[in-house]
Amino acid sequence: MAFTLPKLPKLSGRTVMVLAAVSALAIGAVAANASKHQQAAQPKPAGDQAAAPLTANKASDQTSLEATAAAEAKLDQCRSARLIPVNKTWGIPMPSVNGSSSTNCNLKYGDNPHRGSDRTGDPETSIQVLQRNLNSCYGTKLAIDGIYGKNTRAVVTMVQRKHNIIADGIYGPKTRSAMNWRLYSTSTRTWSKTCSSPL
Question: Cβ-count burial of 28 within 10 angstroms (0-12 exposed, 13-18 middle, 19+ buried)?
Fold first, then answer.
């Protein structure tokens, strides 16, 4: 059994244009009505109060990060290097405070190798340890010269950006904890094949 469509009357060009316009208006009205229902279903913020806490928290977090960076910038210069144990087998050679196992110190642009008139400790070794690690773990080609110059600062800034911390170019505790390190085993006297962030 074949199905045949009834013949439609011939429409003039003007009638087709009117039907197209009516169809467009109908589709627009349906879309506008659907949009109103979607907006009504969503909870409305009370003025600017809903957006304010996010902005305030973001500003507060930024202020806190800047305060931490400023505090780190005031730390004493790293004037030694120590193997900081990670487990029974591995440790990380890293810059440290002179005469201590503490790594709460900093290195910054202009350390050549000493900072100011204080000539105690061995900041040159401290800077070299940092430079070697940056070359090993981040593929940079810094000269291992014990001078914290513009190239070392640029690489530290790049590492800070990579790890989403304040990029001020100063190596300090926050950078130390965020960055990747190559581990050293004193028992086998070998370096790890890869770098990690075990802190």
Answer: exposed
Contact 126, 115 (CB under 8 A): no
| Entry pTM | 0.67
Cβ partners under 8 Å of residue 140, min gap 6: 134, 155
Name the token pair of 154: 């640029």
pLDDT digits (tens, 9 = 90+) for 13-60: 554 444 444 444 444 444 445 444 444 444 444 444 444 454 556 676
Structure tokens at 126: 């401290």
